[in-house]
Task: structure prediction
Amino acid sequence: MKHSIATVSLSGTLPEKLEAIAAAGFDGVEIFENDLLYFDGTPATVRRMCADLGLEIMLFQPFRDFEGGPRERLARSPRSSRGGGQGWPQGGNADGQRGCL
Result:
């Protein structure tokens, strides 16, 4: 069994959070979208940082507090293809993320 924690659970910058997560002995990390958006680097840099710290990127958490909302909210979302966006990521990607939460 692997243990992970979401970056949204900690305070600080993304590098500080990753270092704390590794020091606490977690196997992996769930990257919260805002941590990635406010990080001054690329997703590939985050992947390398995690690898250097021995952390596996378990999930990418692109949004929260969305369940139970009206369908109109989804349609207006900038991420929704119906709202003019590109839609949500599907599956994993080359930067180490295997799924979306």
